[in-house]
Every structure is written in structure tokens, then in C-alpha cells.
Amino acid sequence: MNSTQLIAVAVASVILSKKKTRKRSVWTKEWLLKRKKFSHINLLNELKLHPGDWFNYLRMDEHTYFELLNLVTPLIMKNNTKLREAISPHERLTVTLRYLATGRSYEDLKFTAAISAQSLGQIIPETCSAIYKVLRKKYLKFPNNETEWRAIATQFEQRWDFPNCLGSVDGKHVQIIPPSNCGSYFWNYKGTNSLVLMAIANANYEFVMIDFGANGRLSDGGVIEHHTLFHHKLINNELKIPQPSSPINSNKLLPYVFIGDEAFSLRNDFLKPFSQKELDKEKRIFNYRLSRARRVIENTFGILASKFRIFNHPINVKLENIEKVVMASCVLHNFLRKKIGELYVSTNNYEVEKTELDVPPDTMGCLISLEKSHNRNATESAKEVRNAYKEYFISGGAVEWQNNLI
To answer: From the centroid of its chain, how far is CA 179?
Structure first.
């Protein structure tokens, strides 16, 4: 070995020895090690004396919170190690709920939770997955028999004077921070990057079905037809929809239908408004009555966004974790609607009479753009179904105020 090679070996040895002996200066910040002292858990202990503040902080009352905590604890419990004490399920759940309720970044949340941003990047998606897993079967159950469908229809008829309605359908743009080098893949007509939340709501502002993940470039009609299991089952008659029945004050049979806006396709089992170009008085009445019931899904999105403000700003987490955040928020919405009802949100502000030309309250990114409309040719039978509903709304199913609101 010549002198040049010897020098090179010596230099390499010095470098390797320095790498081996180099020590990390700080494993974690000292104040984060004092989590018991600085964590917002201490604040929560004080808020037990002020139920209203507790509710505002976590979007639910104390009793409901601890019921949820008991459900998710087996899925998010971690074992202590010799080096450190594990972050408790209580801390994991509260910081996740604060993230959903506020939309704050991990870097911001770390100061109130006393948990590092890196740890929050694991804790929050894991806890969202756990929330969805423990709640979805009971609180986001898709109807699978005629009895369950009829229960939804009865509720629509009682609350919104729309018979045989199986659900109000629409989509919502959920803004995201897109991955690098994705170009315009997620760019939508509103000028933002988004993924689409397609949903069906019942008359009580609860989600019956949610489907999330289609990119924002697609219209809602395209999303539901090409990206949802619901539409596949609908066109293949696999939803176990009841046979047509006669509504109140009528002896004519009307089929059970879903309702949506102009962007969807008119079908025997899916109604949308008449075109603005062909309106007469009777068609205006139909559009008003359909719009009155259809606004349920828009208001449901509005309630969701007002309670979980993660939807008010672009979601800045890894793409694979965005779905976990959105699905957890939706199932939490249903959980709280069923558990605490009007305490969760008063629906009085939403149940007001408006014409179909009014902007619905708090749509927060719903897909209502008419330029995205799917105005395909409907079948004659689908047009006949819509006309049958129109005739019902101007005869036996008329409501006293409808002529004043068209």
C-alpha cells in the first residue's frame, strides 16, 4: 500500500470514529418532558367545573367524551417503556378532537398538548382511524333493507313534506395541501386543490353514506357515477329499495327516490330540478319543494364545517392520512347528532323557508356549480316520475305557503 492510500485510510478512520462518538445533544426538548405540568389535560380538569367551556373545547359534553374514550382506548393504548412513559389514551383523544375542532397545525398544537409535532403526526391519524372503526357500524350504517329505507322516507315526509325520499345527495370540496409534483391533479373549478366528499344525508342532518377521495377536478355527477359503490348498487338494483307507495292524500303510486341538484342525472330513482330554461308555475313549485328537502345535505355539510373547523382551511397532512381525518369527522358528527342532538347544534337556524334561488346557509364548499352540470338525456320513464311528483305537489301534497315562495 503506497503513502497516498495510507493517508486515505487514516482520514476515513478518523471520520468513522467521529461518527461513532458523536452524540445527539438533546433527545427531546426539556419542556416536552414535563407534559404532566404543561399539558392541556390540566385545563380540562378545571373545565369540569364549567360544562359550557368543556363543551366548546371538545365539541361534546363530559359524559359523551368519556363514553367515546372508553370505546377507543383499547385501540390507542400504548405500553410504557424503560425510557419514557407512554402518552395516555386520554391525551391522544383530546388532542385529536382539538385538531379536528380547530384545524390548527401540529406545530401549533404541540404547545397546548405538550406533545411534539412529530408524535402528533402519528397520534392524530391513528386516533382518527380508531374513532372511525369503533363508531361506523352503529353511527354510519348504510340501510340494507326496506324497513330502514322506509324509516328515512317517513322522516323526510314528516319534516320536509317530501314523500318517499331516501336521502339528499351532494358533494363537498375538502381543501388540501397537495403533494409536491402533482401538477393540477387536485385543482378544482373554485381555484383550490381538493378531494371530494360525496355524501347522502337523512332528514335529521345525519350522514347515511359518505365516500371520500376522488380528486377535485371531477364534477359531483362524475364522482358519484364513477367513484362510489352506492351508484354501482343503485343502477344494479342492489339497494333493496321499497316498491312504490302512495303518499298522504293521494291514491297514485310514487317510486322511492334520492334527490340532488342539477349536476346529477335524472333517473327513475333519482330526482333533480327542472331546467331554469323551461320553468312554468308548476315546475317552479316542484323545484321549490325539491330544493327545500335537498338543502338538508348542504346544511349537514355546514354543521360539520362549523363544528369541525379542520374543513375551513386546507388540510395539511400526508395524503394517506387526509381520509382518516375526514371520515373520523363525519362519523363523529353522526355520533354527536344521535347522542346529544340539539345540544350539539340547534337546527332552528337551518329550518327556514327559502326559495331554490337562495344561497343555502354554510355550504362551505358544496359542489353547486351549474357549469359542472351533467345534463345528459334522461329516459322518458324518469321524466314521467318527476312529472308524477310535480302533479302530487300541486294537488294532494300541496303545502299552503308554496305559492308565495316561487
So the answer is: 21
CA atoms in the 13 A half-sphere facing the CB of 162: 27
Please state, rounded to an integer, the average pLDDT across all residues of the chain: 86
- The pLDDT tens digits for 239-276 are 999 999 999 999 999 999 999 999 899 999 999 999 98
Chain segment 296-318, per-residue pLDDT in tens: 999 999 999 999 999 999 999 99
Distance between CA atoms of residues 76 and 134, nearest Å: 11
Among residues 209, 176, 229, 246, the alpha carbon closest in space to that of 396 is found at 246
Neighbour tally for 255: CB within 10 Å: 18
What's the distance, CA 359 to chain centroid? 20
CB contact at 8 A, 100 and 325: yes
- Please report the pLDDT score of residue 229 as a whole number: 92
Q: What angle do CA 264, 169, 397 make, to 5 degrees?
A: 95
Residue 388 grid coordinates:
308524477
pLDDT of residue 350: 67
What is the model's pLDDT at position 345?
85
Instruction: Output the pTM of the full model.
Output: 0.85
Q: What is the dihedral of CA 368, 369, 375, 379, to 10 degrees?
A: 0
